[in-house]
Backbone:
């Protein structure tokens, strides 16, 4: 019998920041827009991730939210890290993270960045091409390497395949070149796509990785690392599979992977998203061709970038008026700065009203700019003293 919908989708009580706490914090008069974050919720998510897949060691994807307090919580929870740049590496080193806990998972790295990371003691580097293999090998011949392969991204809100990942024939050429160079190619990784709502994708990725492991062994290499990447979803509008269900599928797929292979993952969004709310205000309203437009001080360039790719957030207000379909836009003069269409909002919304967006701790402030002279949202960290 197939699992019931309730079984597959997230029935686990979520750890979202309490709306009452958010409203209380707003009374302290912070300038909007701001991201209100409770890093303790990220701690709960880290523990939940580990419990869901005990064999898998999480490494936080710093790009999701590089705020130092988030990084500190991950460090306290024994979570490792995954970086894409040397600025991210410096943030971690400043917190005392050992360089060996940092995996350099950007498949394309400049020589300058590689030299810097190697000098700081980073041991593990990803690659997905012969060019990158030769580049890393030329700078750090003893680098420990893992190969990013293509995998199915069906059912992910952010398919990533296409930009990165070697196809099987390319993987074979890379393995052969690594053997020729005597490079330490020791692992395989994949990314199922961000906000992946297809429970099967990780198991499919693990199967593909096993094929590459077999091919590595045929060429005399001994695999030591399986990195199952990121993509674990958080709840917004659409149903998601719970991390517990994903964990069951992953743990089952790992049964054929020998204990000599370390298994890690790179969750970003999952660990940090539901620890934060965006608090924004209405800066103006208009009616255009019969449609109500609501303009906020947070927009596409100021914390709500993911809406451009179709991310749908929940929206709360303090008004109780009849809900009508609204277009919600940001404060800039760029026509791309429109976040929502046909969003049901109270018809009595006015300038100065607060707009609250939950579960937006990932890829929000991290993406923000100061385009058009509007400030980035400030990050306000909730202390446990001011939780009620
Ligand atoms: C962005 C990224 C992640 C994190 O992805 P999420 O969808 O936030 O979990 C993990 N690994 C790599 C290589 C990435 O680029």
Residues:
């Amino acid at each position: 019998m197939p699992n019931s919908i309730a079984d597959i989708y997230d029935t686990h009580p979520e750890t979202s920041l309490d709306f009452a706490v958010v409203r209380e914090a707003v009374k302290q008069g912070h300038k909007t827009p701001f991201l209100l974050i409770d890093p303790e919720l990220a701690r709960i998510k880290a523990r939940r991730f580990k419990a869901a897949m005990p064999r898998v060691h999480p490494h936080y994807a710093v790009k999701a939210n590089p705020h130092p307090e988030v990084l500190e919580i991950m460090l306290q929870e024994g979570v490792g890290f995954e970086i894409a740049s040397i600025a991210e590496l410096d943030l971690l080193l400043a917190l005392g993270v050992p360089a060996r806990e940092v995996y350099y998972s950007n498949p394309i790295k400049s020589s300058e960045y590689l030299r810097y990371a190697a000098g700081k003691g980073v041991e593990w580097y990803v690659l997905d091409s012969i060019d990158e293999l030769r580049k890393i090998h030329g700078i750090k011949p003893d680098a420990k390497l893992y190969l990013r392969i293509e995998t199915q991204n069906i059912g992910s809100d952010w398919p990533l395949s296409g930009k990165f990942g070697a196809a099987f024939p390319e993987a074979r050429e890379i393995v052969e070149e690594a053997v020729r160079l005597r490079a330490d190619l020791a692992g395989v990784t994949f990314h199922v796509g961000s906000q992946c709502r297809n429970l099967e994708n990780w198991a499919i990725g693990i199967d593909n990785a096993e094929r590459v492991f077999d091919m590595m062994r045929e060429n005399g290499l001994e695999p030591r690392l399986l990195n199952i990447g990121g993509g674990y979803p958080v709840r917004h509008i659409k149903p998601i599979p719970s991390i517990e269900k994903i964990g069951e599928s992953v743990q089952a797929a790992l049964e054929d992977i020998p204990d000599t292979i370390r298994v890690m993952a790179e969750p970003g969004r999952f660990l940090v998203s539901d620890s934060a709310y965006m608090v924004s205000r209405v800066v103006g309203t208009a009616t255009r061709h019969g449609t109500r437009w609501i303009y906020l001080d947070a927009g596409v360039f100021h914390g709500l970038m993911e809406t451009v790719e179709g991310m749908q957030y929940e929206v709360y207000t303090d008004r109780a008026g009849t809900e009508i379909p609204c277009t919600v836009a940001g404060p800039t003069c760029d026509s791309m700065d429109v976040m929502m269409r046909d969003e049901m909002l109270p018809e009595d919304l006015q300038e100065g009203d607060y707009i609250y967006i939950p579960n937006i701790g990932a890829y929000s402030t991290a993406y923000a700019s100061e385009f058009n002279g509007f400030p980035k949202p400030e990050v306000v960290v909730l202390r446990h003293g001011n939780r009620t």
In short: Residues 201-218 form the longest helix (18 residues). The radius of gyration is 22 Å. The pocket of pyridoxal-5'-phosphate is lined by residues 61, 63-64, 82, 105, 191, 194, 229-232, 266-270, 362 (CB under 6 Å).
